[in-house]
Structure formats: structure tokens, C-alpha cells
Amino acid sequence: MKQLKKLNITCCKLAVLVSCTFFGTSINAQTTPSNNAFTEVYEEFPRQEKNLRKWDAPPVIADLDQDGYQDLLINDHGYGIQVCWNNNGKFEKPYDLIMGDLHGVSIGDFDFDGNLEVIMSRGGGSGSNARNSKTFRVTKKREFIALPDFNVPLELMRGRTLQFFDGDNDGDLDLLNFAFPGAEKKGASENYIYKNDGNGELILHSTLPAIKSNGQKTLVTDFNNDAIFDLVMYGVGNVKAFKGNGDLTFTDVSKQVLPYNIGDVTGIAEIDFDNDGDFDLYFTRGNAFEIGEAFFDKETKTFGFFTKRGEFNFEMPIGDVLQLENFQSQWPNNDTFYIGEASYDYKLEGETHSGKNISLVNSNALGFPDNTNFKNKTGWYIGYIGNKKWRISGYLWAPGTGIVHGVENYPKYTHPEALNDVLLENKGRKLVDVTKEKNVFEASNNEGVTIADFDNNGFPDILITKRGDLIHANESVIFLNKEKSGFEKLSNHQIISTELGAIGMAVETIDYNQDGKTDVVLGNERGGVWHLFKNELKEAKDNNFITIEVGSTNSGKVTALGGAKVEVKSCNNIQIQRVGSTGAQYSQGFNNFMNFGLGKCTEAIKVKVTYTNGETLEKVVARLNSKVLIGK
What we know:
The protein is mostly beta strands.
């Protein structure tokens, strides 16, 4: 990062992308792409240029209109959910579907009518406005039709996790519907499991044990390889492993399955990294920001901070002009700025949900109020207190973050030690830690993970999003799978988020243009824009691939989304993937276009799809580097 003081511009030049900030307004210009990296694309992915908070997997992926190209549902947290229609490899401008505070999203045809349904969990206003989930039917004409509640409505809650899955192996879609626990429930479980009755109704069947706080993040997997789905729950507290009993009930087997207590987990994805036919698990781990945590880069004179749940106070020497970038806070303090000794209201133009960029001259912000009871009048208080110093104080309940430019110095902050990720190999009855052995010991604060064969060599790779430090561009991590020698970190891949003040959150993969190379969609918490990165890796171009489009069975009694497992045999290699499996924390997409790298193999391949009710479909494919439909 380099600051050009005369022009008041902060520029970050990153091989394929130049991002310049004029007092917080980002301007992007694409440069010549690298011949062996990912390239951020703009023409194919028009986006809203606002620093909005994101939620969970960015985005949820499905071919909603069933035209052969995957569409996107993007969730700007607290603002609304939009759809991005994919027109033969080029996305339309996002279109608003529903406004407000939305969390987990899941997609599937739960009533077998041939259309996909989208279910969205709604926030509960920190417990003051509990609501149930909202369901839409999506037609092939790109219409979203709001559906009425079920005969017995889904439970009211502070909605979080929503995931369709076939938990009783009968071929239809059941539902996990988990809440952030409400105080009014007095400890009763809000981890609800709904059974599909086969007539278009989801009926409450059972619950999982109650959890604390934000501990309802969930991975649906099969860690004991018995073709019955298991659950891994994480977030606050240690990871819990629940064995599926086949009847939508689950047994806690954490002590029997996990090698030790694993805490501070931010994301989990299943990966058969050794291609031995069972699913291993990759855990990202990291410390959340502490209250009052601060970051400072003396070279660029950039300061960033995080605060929540009470009073805060930051003082720093700057000079005559205070430049604030991407100040983020939630309702009711998203627009409450009090300036100077008089604490006059600073009027923001336009909407205030996105990050705020403010420039203040000291003569318009002189002094600071005496004996202020911030708790009685919550918000941001900003004033020039003399000798080049400015003070930013106040009281916030929800998280608040921001960037300040031109800071001369700031006391060193001692940050908590970073945590390492964990790779667990599936040994049949137990998961074994092979993190160091496989060269994926990543000691940093990471937030999300996704799995794909980015170089098409026939072995799945790992992409990790970092939390970041607010004041620098945030570069993701890619570990390429080198088969028996383990993983190797890919340098200069250019999957980088340049927005200052943003916190890395989650990542998803998609072959948006159907060229057989897996691309990446990235979003951030605490502000930022959506990013689409096109896969330009030379290895991915040189190696062969096959894309399996998984449809329903010929009987029509089961859908692919229930968790169909796809097996591809090519030369001496066997790979497996599961339809709909992602590293999402709260959501469940329906990406039924499964990309398999084949390396240099040119022989015909064998494909086998095993559906959750036991039905199988098999096909021999001689034409490589193409998309093949299995099922209907």
C-alpha cells in the first residue's frame, strides 16, 4: 500500500487489479491478467459498489431457472437478498428479492413440482422480533412466488441455519432449522429438525441439544461412511459430532469420533483429499476481534479498530483534517454521529446502511463534550481536542469498525496469538489430525473454506479466507493438492479483497462460464463488495476435466440435492463429491454441476451417482472436456 499525500489518494496495485480510494470511494481498473492466476472480472459480474456487510456463503449457488447456468443469491446482511441471473456466463445486475435482516438460505425442490424452492431464515431483532422463515418458489420464467406458511408454521426464532438434506434416506428433502437461542426460551433447544411428509409439508420431528450463543453453524456430512447423514456443529464452544441414526434423530459421538476438543472453529468443509472414497474434514480456526482491538500501519498512516458491547475511546494525532473510511455500525447507531463539544448531529446524505466515508475539518469539530453519559445517548462522538489530536468515542451495542487515514502514530496493540487450522483424515471410525503431515498448518485467523480442484489435476484443493486486519488488502490462501506429497501453497494467485475496513468472511466456488475451470466468489463482513475471480491457472487449462450435471433419478422419487454422491473413475484415479456440499456456515446451495479434474488422462471415464434412497445411475463417458447429464 502506498499513500499519495498530495492527491489524498490511497492506491493498491495488485498485478491484475488496481484499486484506488478517494476518501473511501473505490475505483477499480482491470489490468493485464496474469497467465497463471485468478483474474477479477467486472463486465461479467456487475455489482453494487457499496461497502455492505455480507452473510455466510457468498453467495448461495443454484441453477434457479434451470437454463444450464448457475445463478447466485447474494445476502447483504441486514439489507436484503438479491438474485444475480446468469445469462450464458454473464450475470445480470443484482435484483432485489426481499429486504431486511436475512441469514441462512437453502434451495431445493422439496415438493417434487419441478421447480426449486428457496427458504430464507429471518433475523429476530436480537430477540425482540422473532419470526419464521420465508419460502419462495422459483419458476423457469424467473419468477419468485411467495408461498404461504405450512399448515403448522415453522417455529418463530432468531433465524440462523437452514439446510435441506435427506436425513431419513427416503429421497425427499427434510430441513435443519436452527436458531440463535433466545433468552425467552430459558434454555430449551431451538435446533429444530423437520421431516418432509411427502405431501408438500415440513413437520417438526425432533431437536438437537441446545447450544450456546452462535454455536449453530453446521456441516452435513457422512463421517462414518454408512450412507446416513451425520452433522458437525460448531461456532461458540467445542465442535460437536452427531451420528445420524437414519430416522432424523442423532447421537452425540464427539468423544468417539474427534481426536481432541476443537474450539474457535469458523468454517468446516468435507474433502476427500487422498481420493480413498471417504470424506475427510478441513477446519478453519481463528480469534474474533477483541473489544477495542486496534491496528496501525505507520508507513501508510492507516488506523483501524473494532468495538462492541459498550463504551469505546480512541485518541490519535492526525492534523487539521480527519478522514474516516468505511465506518460500519448497525441500527440504531448507523447514522448517529455527534461532532465537537456541542455534539451536533452530523447529517449523512442518502442511505446509511453501508459503510460511511466522512471528512471533517478541525474548525468544524472543535472540542469534546464534558461528562457525557454515552449510554443515554448512544452513537459515535468525534471531536478535535487540540495539539493535532482527535478523539473518537461513544457507546455501541452492535459491532462497530472503521478506518482512519493520516494517523501519525498509535500505541502498539498486543493481539492474541493466531490459531492454526486443522485437517482431519477419515480413518473409518475416527478422524485423525494430519495437519502438519499434509503441510496445511496455517497459523492465522481464518474465517472460511471451500474445496475445488482448481488446477484440474484430479485431486481437490483448499481455498481459505482470512479474517484480515482491517487496514490492509486481504489475500486468501490456496493449498494445491500434490497427491502423496501433501499440499503446496500457491503464491501470487491474486484472490485478494482490497476494501479497507472489511473482515474476511466466506468464499464459494462456481464455474460461472461453463469452461471447466472452477472460479471463485468472495464477500466480506463489515463492508466490502462482491468479487468474482475467473480461473486463469495454466494447469487448469492444460489438464482435462469433466463436468457432471446431476439430475433426479428416472423414478422421480429422489432429487440430487438430498446429498447424492458422485464418483468418477479416470485412469488410475477415483474421486468423489457430494451435491450441495459446501463450506457454508448456515446455508445450503444446490450446485449440481460437479467439476472433476482429470489431469492428463484421456481414457473414457466411469461415472456413478448414488442417491440418498439407494438408487444408482452409471454411465461411461468417452468425450472429455464437456458437460454430461446424469439423470433427468
